[in-house]
What does this fold into?
Amino acid sequence: MLVYGNFWHQIGLVDDFLWEICSIQTIFGKIQFKFPIILLVFPFWTWVVGVYIGASIGSFLNALIYRMPRGLSISEPKNSFCPICKHRLTFLDLLPLLSWLFLRGKCRHCGAKIPARYFWVEVFTGGIFGAIWYQQLCVGEAPWRAVCLAIFAAALILAFFIDIKHYI
It folds into this structure.
């Protein structure tokens, strides 16, 4: 038994090269569904979303890189702060990649220089997440593998930058 989606059939997207057949074996027999292949993969341009998600996670990794070796809690203080003047950072200070560039690597409140490591962790994490997104979601069809690779990559980046800074 072959089931077509009525909407897709009405708009003329029933050509076989645009459709994927999914078979399900039931106690009543084999049922096949046809649905557009375009629903299976992410469009090519979405790797940019992976880069921004990676840069955002890189921003969180920066907080971990600063706090973990010093024995500071991840949850206390609740908000990010300038390591020099301890002023609470606002939304505009926390935009991944952009804030560091617009503020020219300086704290908006005290003018102290913010290490370039903050920017490079976000760039590096964003690049790796963008590559994982493209390879596993745009070209391949392995979302669980993409999640596992992203978690593993974030852990490696965290360990790498803590080790460079503190030689632990």
About this structure: Residues 143-166 form the longest helix (24 residues). The radius of gyration is 23 Å.
